[in-house]
Amino acid sequence: TASVGSPQTTPEGGFVFRVDLDLRPEGRSGPIVNAIRGLELYYEAQGAAWERFALLKARPIAGDLETGEEALKRLSPFVFRKYFDLKAIDEMRRLKARAEKEAARSAGIELKLGKGGIRETEFFVQALQLLHGGRDPNLRVRGTLKALQRLLYAGIISSRDRDELSEAYIVLRRLEHRVQMVAERQTHSIPEDPAERERLARRAGYPDAERMLADLAVQRARVETRFRDLLRVAGEGPKGENVHAAAAADPLASDEERAAALAELGFDQPDASAEELSRLARKRGTPFAPDSPHGALGPALMQELAAAPDPDQALRHLTDLFGQMRNPAATAEMLSASPRTARLLISLFGSSDFLSRSLLRHPELIDQLVHRGSAPLVRDRDDLRSDLGNRLAALPADDVEGALTELRRFRNEEVLRIGLHDVAGALSIEQVSRQLSDLADACVEQCFAMATREIEKRDGASAASMVVIALGKLGGRELGYHSDLDLLFLYSSGGETEKHVSNHEHFARVAQRMISHLTLPLREGALYRIDTRLRPSGSAGPLVISFEALATYHAREARLWERQSLLKARPVAGDGALFARAHAQVLEPSIFRKADRAEAAKELLAMRERMEREIAAESPGRYNSKSGRGGLVDVEFAVQFLQLVHGAENPQVRSASTPVALDGLAEAGQLSPNDHGPLLKGYRFLRRLESRLRIVRDRPVDRLPESGQELLRLARRMGYSGPRAGEELLAEYQRISEEVRAAFLRVMT
Known about the structure:
Helices cover 60% and strands 4% of the residues. With 749 residues, it is mostly helical. It has 5 domains: 79 residues, Beta Polymerase, domain 2 (2-Layer Sandwich); 150 residues, Up-down Bundle (Four Helix Bundle (Hemerythrin (Met), subunit A)), CATH 1.20.120.330; 125 residues, no CATH class; 149 residues, 2-Layer Sandwich (Beta Polymerase, domain 2); 152 residues, Nucleotidyltransferases  domain 2 (Four Helix Bundle (Hemerythrin (Met), subunit A), Up-down Bundle), CATH 1.20.120. The strands form 2 sheets. Strands 3, 4, 5, 6 and 7 form a 5-stranded mixed sheet that branches. Strands 1-2 form a two-stranded antiparallel ribbon. α23 links the parallel β4 and β5. α10 packs across α13.
């Protein structure tokens, strides 16, 4: 490669990297190497605002890395100011104007410097880091995607902002890479030549240039809108106190005055909520009481309440929180000292009634909000199993009721932990589902062990063994809030126990006792609902089945829908070796036996149409996100159909996870990019929608609200904002479900 500072010629063997030193102090006229103290003096005296942007991504990469880290640490006060510094916004405007001038000179569509391009995405993120990073060290990260996650976690942007900007950044950077792979130069423009555009589209995974340009237009529009909003809002400086929030929080206001202010803030039930505020004003120590030392917290809380998905519900739960505290002033002090905690708490109160009630039953868990390090984002299955096992081991061995109570307490605490991070937008839908599934695994395993010990005391032990097999969403580790557990019970062989009870009867008792432990409603609630109808012969068949009977059934009687359900089979408790033998010798040969594509498609389409007609029961304006047209079942059936047809020759498509199977089918050439994209995007959107529908109440819900406040609240939980949020959500649902249905029909026909 040419040495730094030499003429820009390309040597015969090509270059390794282009090197640019123009961002050093004093630019091209400055020395190439600086002492640390020299750097400090330069930035203290002459450092420009644009150099703060440049230093955001600085990191040592070679030589004495410790010295490099020390240098950056000493420059941190220059980059991150302790005060609200709008100079960063002014500089961003100037840099952006210059970038747009450069973009205007480029031919084609500019990916980097144009409106809604890569640079605007980076400016958006970096400006917020510079504005808030002085007070929040967690924001001082280098990567754009990582910074978006931290900005969300700090409550500075919404989960929708994070999701859409992340997607746009990935799309823009991927296209930039594909352009540069061919050109081998620093070009950032979509080529103007139609043939080149078509080739670029295929390299980037699009079916054609038209689809690529349409997606690019959507992504750039999202970036441009947020960038424009940032300039507008930041240009106004730090927000002052909202006059309506102040009026609602005024401890001396009448109910009528409060109700009027709450109506202006967007409360759906201003009169009832005004009464809640009056209750708070009468309770000493709350931030709404006349003598409260935390009176300034009241208006701030009102603004957070108004921004919650359901402000009225959030206020009711906040009232309950202060009502049950012996020392409300201490709670007010905690919320005043930690605005982030207040924001997350109210977001939870306004998003999920069942999680809020769980938190209010265990207010000590609020510590998890204050000290988030004690509430890890993600816990894996081994960690959960170990923790639960240790808690149960601390109880007397014969204390079954105590163990069942502890199981429920553990499960509720973990669901609350997952829900807290979910509401904060810190988890992807896959991370939520995986953790809920791992939690269920841990609970099922313990209930199986308890049931086995109890029944063996009565029947004696058996030389045979049993395995509990997960199917459905638990099998695919795609569990949601309030999902049933689909289970199948398999034992190894006939014979008797030590006390001459037949193995079939013995293992049936174990299964029944285990189900009882999981479903028994105690003070802490039930653990899970159990569904065993996916066993051979369905509800008419025996609860437990032997290996021999399973093999006979699948050799003679197993229907397509039963083979389809077994695609997600995996062991969750008991004898894993028995499952491995059954899967290799019985299940896998049955699932992936040669299938007539046309016949399989005909049968699954008929089943799908029946579900849509009888379960979804949709009509104009009434949508079911699971069983309805273009719903989750469309995605799952499309994937499972292709797995059944192509799984024998393509082992990589056999995953129980829907998104992993989608990727495997695409890699195997059995699913076109034209179908893979809509199905994967639809799956993630619909799973997130399902999660937001079910997070409110302690029951499964799949039907979308038709209109009004319920739809608006759902849209807010999904990250939409503004008075038309409900309409925007509905429009996006209609668009995505149509894309899913079109892809489903292409796959099936």
